[in-house]
Design a protein that fits this description.
alpha+beta; Nucleoside Triphosphate Pyrophosphohydrolase; 7-stranded mixed beta sheet; 7 strands
Length: 148
């Protein structure tokens, strides 16, 4: 399916990977949001479950193996070019824990890094948008409830 100016929404997955109180971000290497810091994730492949897609995307983009724990949020990401829809993703963001791998920037990512809570609470520094900040905070809070 064509991603730019699609004929229908594309299903995507994202991961709020929480490890040692920090959250994993990637710097996008492609549009939409090229050069921006965001959660790892991407488009679901045909025949792939949401959980399988989450694991695959995180490993491809960050080198880490994760276990999805639970759904944090289901949301729309719609980017417009004038009156036309340039990108439209329906994204399932999952709270994930690290189970293996080695952190490194992979496909579609120009960088990877762990951030502390103070960094996403001051989103201007990393140019995080309000949706990402909300999802990160929800996932981080839930991880605290489950793992502490």
């Amino acid at each position: 399916m064509q991603r730019e100016f699609p004929s229908a929404p594309i299903i995507g997955v994202g991961a709020v990977v929480v490890h040692e109180g920090r959250v994993l971000l990637i710097r996008r290497g492609k549009e939409p949001m090229k050069g921006r810091w965001t959660l790892p994730g991407g488009a679901l492949e045909l025949g792939e479950t949401l959980l399988e897609g989450t694991v695959r995307e995180v490993q491809e983009e960050t080198g880490l193996v994760v276990e999805p724990v639970e759904l944090v949020e289901l949301l729309d990401r719609i980017h417009r070019d004038g009156d036309q829809v340039q990108y439209h993703y329906a994204i399932a963001d999952y709270l994930c824990r690290v189970t293996g791998g080695k952190l490194c920037a992979g496909t579609d990512a120009d960088g990877v890094r762990w951030i502390e809570r103070a960094e996403w609470q001051n989103p201007a520094e990393l140019q995080l948008d309000a949706i990402s900040v909300r999802v990160i905070e929800k996932g981080w809070q839930r991880a605290r409830q489950l793992w502490q």
